[in-house]
Each structure stands twice: as structure tokens, then as C-alpha cells.
Design a protein that fits this description.
The chain starts with 13 loop residues before the first strand and ends in an 11-residue tail after the last helix. The chain has 1 helix and 5 strands; from the N terminus they run βββββα. Strands 1-2-5 form a 3-stranded antiparallel β-sheet, with no helix packed on it. It has a two-stranded antiparallel sheet with strand order 3-4. The chain has 98 residues and is an alpha+beta fold. A hairpin with an 8-residue loop joins β1 and β2.
Length: 98
């Protein structure tokens, strides 16, 4: 099982991971009512980014496994290429099974 690299609860303009790492400050956001109970826990507040909301986090010293990252993206790219091939097939049918 993989570990979460970023574990944010977006319920206030300044958030961090539970251990205090990777702090991020959001600008142009407002706090609104959250979705409540979810599969990931209870979220009573959320951030509404609107059209101007933004934030950035510096991911220095991130302990990501670059091989797993590259392999995951290769699979995603392969799936995307397969979907594109089906969608723009020369047969004219976007759903070749029909």
C-alpha cells in the first residue's frame, strides 16, 4: 500500500499535512459549508476557489518513488492513447462494439 504524500483537508486558507509538512496558503478562496460525511471522513467546511483561487506548495525533499511514478504515468498514457484510438477510429464509429 502506498503512503499519502499530500494529505490536506481543504477547510481553511492555510493547510499542512497532519505532521505539519508541506504548508500551503491559498489566496482568493472563501470558506463554505463542506460535504459533511464522506468516505474519507467528516468535512464540515471546504474552500471555494471560484475563478481566482490559487495556491502553491514547494515539494522539496519529497520522498516519492520516481520509478513507481513513471510506471503509473506510462499506464495512464497507454490508456489515454487507447481511448483516443477508439474515439477517432477510421471506421467512423466512436463505439466500435456497436
Amino acid at each position: 500500500m502506498s503512503d499519502m504524500l499530500l494529505d490536506y483537508s481543504l477547510n481553511k486558507p492555510a493547510v499542512t499535512n497532519p505532521d505539519g509538512s508541506y504548508a500551503i496558503n491559498f489566496a482568493g478562496c472563501t470558506i463554505v459549508a463542506g460535504p459533511g460525511a464522506t468516505a474519507f471522513g467528516q468535512f464540515d467546511q471546504a474552500l471555494d476557489f471560484g475563478t481566482a483561487g490559487k495556491g502553491a506548495v514547494v515539494l522539496t525533499n519529497l520522498k516519492a518513488n520516481p520509478k513507481r511514478f513513471a510506471i503509473a504515468w506510462c499506464f495512464r498514457l497507454a490508456l489515454l492513447l487507447r481511448i483516443a484510438k477508439i474515439w477517432w477510429s477510421p471506421t467512423g464509429s466512436r463505439f466500435p462494439c456497436f
